Amino acid sequence: MKKGWYILNYHDISWEESIWMRGIGGTFAPDIFEEQLEILSKSARLVSIEEGFKRFLDADIDEPLVSFWFDDGFRGVRKYAMPIMKEYSIEGAVSINSRFALREEMFWRAKLSFLAHSDALRLLRSRLKKFAFRTGKEYIKAFTLDHFSRDIVEIIDELYEEFCPEHSREDAFRIFDTFEGIGCLLENGWEICNHSSAHYPISEESYIHRFTDEFIECEEAIERELGISTRFWVLPFDRKSVDIAQMRKLMDEKGHRERRLVMVGNRVNIAQESPSGTIFRIEAPSLPAKDYPGYLSSI
Amino acid sequence: MYPHDMEREYLYLPPSEDRTIVLVTGKELRHRRFALRIIESFGERVKGWYELDDSLRSPHKGRAISSKLSRLEKIPSFAIDMAKYCRHRGLKAAVRKSVTDISNLLYRIRLRSRSLRREEEKLFAKEVARLEKKIDMQARKIETEYVHTDDFREEIRQLDPYLFLTLGGPLYKSALIESIRGVAINQHAGSSPRFKGSNTIHWALYHRKLEDIASTVHLTVSAADSGAILRRSTVTLHPDDSIESIFLRTVALGTELMIEVVEEIIDPNSQKIAIFPQDSKDGRSYLDSELNFPVRKALLRDFDSGWLREELERIRRF
């Protein structure tokens, strides 16, 4: 592995991958995660986000460093990932969406996952036709990012309410941690990060006009509930097309110069090579744990 | 999670300040993990732990050896049968049959070499060792048949648990279940009501129903896995999983669902819980004997062909 800071990015660590999660991916069972740490610890030094970031800022990375980051604020991070990582004396980072933690709004991609499970996508495809969706030629996941709007979210909501009974809609929030649980991560030295209020595609052309507003709403909730302000703003949905310079400019204009933009990008962090100080992460691949060092070496 | 495809009702909990627990489990590592996780989570509320261990009976080693020898005796008869087959159907058909027989034999060898216990050690041994260090309570070992006796009922009556939690045991008689002053709850590695009984994860895989690779926590009734559901959810799957690792993770998930339910019930302010009654006409109960060689061979072939990886990719591609 290269001399650099590798940050592996996950969604959840849990025995459970409910039907709200299955269509999203990024969940790993605790035994698999534990095996990944064990194997990676033989090829690199496992470090907390705090240490990795400090050495990145100081341009003091003379060995391969590996850290762990979890997006969306799922409950399994505290329940399973934290105790496993404690055995290696490291802390991770969790990026949260305030409306999920406050039970105000369900993640719209989780709703899509539920609809896929319930065979309701055929109806969604039909209802998306008025937005020029071409059945059989496009995927819903990509289309909804390309053409994202509140109208599309409303259509998804209508179908979700039609197919998912009220008791399950309320119960589904249990996949996310509450602010009380996130507070426990904070007390244990974890980095709490802003992932926007509701995980809308704010880096996409279709919704970039809401870029700072969505982050600020989440920031205010974190300040109110946990009494901290975040150092990292983590982009929801960073496809290859995102314009980092444009987003950095938006952050600077609104007075958030000191905050770091974080994305996936599947790159190793090497201080001198990072555009605008952006932090990159690597999506944890669905490979056997023994192949992880080889995979990371190939990046 | 609550099952989304069933009607919700409420069960009003009998009021009690003393919400204690008794556990009855099998003796495998996954069962021990269940008991130890419950004890770790609820401490002194756990008043007793019974472990079902039929090896307490005298082992039948002699019978096992003679059964192996009788199999060896079949070899010459197989050769004679083959010769007869060749005479009646011709050499080509006999060769074809031999190839099928050898292929089946290889599958049988592979099926025998698959060890649930080895996979179980890999998944749970470390955690169970950690829990055993932390927890003093020892299981009282009993034979399975003992749970049906008056003596066992009397023991339970004296312990007087509010919650009677079970994993990996037999079907319990109504008299015992009804004697519990709170609730009897069972953990089932399978998706009730569609897949009840034995080897239900294998059957869900055989039918290629990933949505039924699930664990169910339900009220205990005298029929297999048929009581009202309290929680049911699907397990985390990985493209390189084996049948055994999927089954074991389903058990681990069920244990966490059970803990969630117990946390809800032992809260002294908890007066009612959501339940989802099963319709006895729904789904199917599988017998242990039904998981025969052709079914197990078909399962292996699916896994060999990389079906799971492709199916997981397909589900996420929409």
Structure commentary:
The complex is a heterodimer of chains A (299) and B (318). Chain A is built from 13 helices and ten strands. In chain A, helix 5 (108-117) crosses helix 8. In chain A, strand 5, helix 3 and strand 6 (93-96) form a beta-alpha-beta unit. In chain A, the strands form two sheets. In chain A, strands 1, 4, 5, 6, 7, 8, 9 and 10 form an eight-stranded parallel sheet that branches. Chain A has a two-stranded parallel sheet with strand order 2-3. Chain A is an alpha/beta fold and 299 residues long. With 318 residues, chain B is an alpha/beta fold. In chain B, strand 2, helix 1 and strand 3 form a beta-alpha-beta unit. In chain B, helix 4 crosses helix 10 (293-304) and helix 5 (116-134) runs parallel beside helix 9 (243-266). The mean pLDDT of chain B is 91. The interface between A and B is medium-sized, with 34 and 28 residues.
The major β-sheet of chain B equals: 7 strands, mixed
| Biggest contact | A-B, 34 and 28 residues
Shape of chain B: globular
Alpha plus pi helix count of chain A: 13
- Could you tell me how far the N terminus lies from the C terminus of chain B, measured between alpha carbons in angstroms? 24 Å
- Portion of residues in beta strands of chain B equals 15-25%
Runs of chain B in which pLDDT lies below 50 for 5 or more consecutive residues are: none
Q: What is the mean predicted local confidence, pLDDT of chain A?
A: 94
Instruction: Profile the largest sheet of chain A.
Output: 8 strands, parallel
Q: What's the total count of β strands of chain B?
A: 11
Helical residue percent band of chain A: 40-55%
What class would the helix/strand composition of chain A place it in? alpha/beta
CA-atom Rg of chain B in angstroms: 23 Å
Oligomer: heterodimer
The arrangement of helices and strands of chain A along the chain is EEEHEHEHEHHHHHHHEHEHEEH
The value of Rg of chain A in angstroms is 19 Å
Proportion of residues in β-strands of chain A:
5-15%
Strand order of the largest sheet of chain B: 4-3-2-5-6-8-9
Can you count the beta strands of chain A? 10
Q: Would you tell me the structural class of the helices and strands of chain B?
A: alpha/beta
Low-confidence stretches of chain A: none
